[in-house]
Amino acid sequence: MKIPNHIGIIPDGNRRWAENNGLNKENGYKCGINPGLFLFKLCHELGIKEITYYGFTTDNTKRPKVQKDAFTQACIDAVNLLSKENAELLVVGNTESPCFPKELLPFTERRVFGKGGIKVNFLVNYGWEWDLNLSRLTHKQRKPIDIALHSEDISRIDLIIRWGGRRRLSGFLPIQSVYSDFYVVDDYWPDFIPQHLYDALDWYSDQDVTLGG
Amino acid sequence: MKIPNHIGIIPDGNRRWAENNGLNKENGYKCGINPGLFLFKLCHELGIKEITYYGFTTDNTKRPKVQKDAFTQACIDAVNLLSKENAELLVVGNTESPCFPKELLPFTERRVFGKGGIKVNFLVNYGWEWDLNLSRLTHKQRKPIDIALHSEDISRIDLIIRWGGRRRLSGFLPIQSVYSDFYVVDDYWPDFIPQHLYDALDWYSDQDVTLGG
Known about the structure:
The first copy, chain A, is of the alpha/beta class. Chain A is built from five helices and seven strands. Chain A has a seven-stranded mixed β-sheet.
């Protein structure tokens, strides 16, 4: 089986899952934390070299405060849990906004936890316009485009898996995603089971990666 | 039914279609021209305001010359056919490269043909890195990002339809696609039938457009 180097994870459907389970919407996020850790462990076993989780975006922060607080806390908890594993962690997002949780500031430079061995990126208060970051370039700095990105330490993504049935990227790393294969799981993220990942990998195995050639 | 303002068309599978029909790969492209015109007419009837066709990319030009010549000619023929319709045509691509066909230079500023009424964009020798065009910005020109794009006259895309079964954007307008819903048709592009479009629109009708909010 062809294993992708880098998987992007869009863990959508937490609010719909909560409503389906008789909970308030904001209570869905914390039920997405353990699935994230479980998926990390499976990827580690499979030899995947890099994972990027879509935590929350600057657009998401326009939601009601109770939801914003809940998804922010879920991201903090998830990153703290991952820091107890063997992982090379990096949080990427706009730290200059009050929506960025100060608890995650120590993670905004990549750090090795335990034995490392797998890069794990977590997007927190991420915005695609912020990422592209045009204003910091000067005319004299004619550098390749990836140098201009806030997310320059995140590599090209081979496979993006989105839970919750929606078929869109929703601003997820537009540059690293230009050639990504995109797999959608209809189940909501809190209902994650390993078979979702295995099905996505089986499907990816059958894709020919041409990069337009 | 909710009709998208702007549809992106990725007409993939011409070479695979040719091989399945006992032809050389390069003979698939010309069989994609009439489907493109047919789809245009259907979109016009439906009141869709803008269509963008993915012609070919700078990455595609690395393919064998016989294929490159064939897809280039198919794009020239397609644009010439569309110029006989009521349409506001614009060709977007890197005109500074020898891979850009000189026959299409007159279309690189938007022009109204017939009664106009629908914008039609055609990407020819397009490259996402070329489009993002960072080097032309100076530090003093802190403009919104869409001003910096070569494709600045192409609006945000609501729905992208890709034929040929592959589930990736392949560098298609990364900025205009950040929130696009993405629908995949397994059939190859030369086998286009109206039901493909209607199925995509039915599906799109059920999507909630949240833009992250």
